[in-house]
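Risk register update: the risk that structure generation would not scale has been downgraded. Supporting records follow, first protein first.
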Amino acid sequence: MASTLGCSISSFPQPYLGLPLSASKIRVSDLQPLIDSFDSYFVGWRGHLHNQGGREVLVHAVQSNFPIYAMCSLLLPKGVIDMIDAKRRSFLWTGEKTCSGGHCKAPWDLVCIPKDKGGLGVKDLHVQNRCLLQKFLSKLHQLASSPWQTWFQNNYG
């Protein structure tokens, strides 16, 4: 079949639309291209030249929203989110790629609390990932308006 179609035979996980497609649970190593693109995207930033407020705005506006595409489709492993959080934390506090605990001015749990409750309002990626995936459940309980909803209801009731 592969020779007839002129394609190669590959194994899982297979990248599809920039995300790993797999029949089993996604591992941290399968999402290494996401981490690498996160690093390469921010390599030109000069975080140490920004003041604390400027770095906070960049963390809110760009770094917290970077993994949304992957989080809409996959439940990211805890290790991947922890790696992204470590990079966001180090950029926020020092403007560099890494930082030690002595540079952090507040615990990350406190940073993720909304501003009206005393935190900085940085998005908690664990919670955001679960919420983005739960939107599909709510769509399944609505009337079928898209082809995938019709297909799902016809096949699985």
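Supporting record for the second protein:
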Amino acid sequence: MVVTGAAGGIGRAICEQVAGLGARLVAVDADQVAGEQVAAAIREGGADACFVAADVSDAADTEAYVAQALTRFGRIDGLVANAGIEGVITPIADYPLEVFDRVLAINARGVFLGLKHVLPPMVAQRSGSIVNVASVSGTIGHVGHSAYVASKHAVVGLTRVAAAEVARHGVRVNALCPGPTSTRMMDAIEAQSGDGDAAATHREIAAKIPAQRYAEPQEVARVAAFLLGDDAAFVHGAAIAVDGGFTAAI
């Protein structure tokens, strides 16, 4: 099992969830210190895990983490393409081009490269499951979030294309679309929003969610584990919302 963005809130929760179910894990992240800590904690819990430092937007880094997974474990049964960044919150006319490009590189190009390099060994073994972590922003728009929304729509689109291409080979590709979740990313978004009152922004966002709260990372991780597992054997090309009813109420 390979998980990118393994050191983030959702990424770490997914690592812990799949390791607890017996997966052998390759944790991938650009943050070497935090990524090593995740892998070490997984090993301390009794599971087999290693860490690979990588920029998922870099083709050579992607080839390297795939090669290390295949060398260490001989096959890749699952990939969770979770690495992502939020960018800034500002109108399109003011959005910095370099930030837009970086968000698209990590969030969309990174998923494309993961698919490009993980699908061939999965097709060859005629089995495997890929979960691309998109967002509710992959299905709706948010004012001021042009790069993030564009990148997550791209993730959903890539997921559907890949699913249609490889289903006949026994490989599944699906997207996970979390709503607001208690992570560093949402902390950063709250800090950028409104008049700088992060607590007030949190309350305002939570009030728009029918469940009246943010998701916990573990709640997202459990759905990712379902999509990776055999119970989701006939789920192909889906974009599964884990959002407390947020998009249902739009």
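Residues 74 and 205 are 44 Å apart (CA to CA). On this basis the risk owner (M.S.) recommends closing the item.
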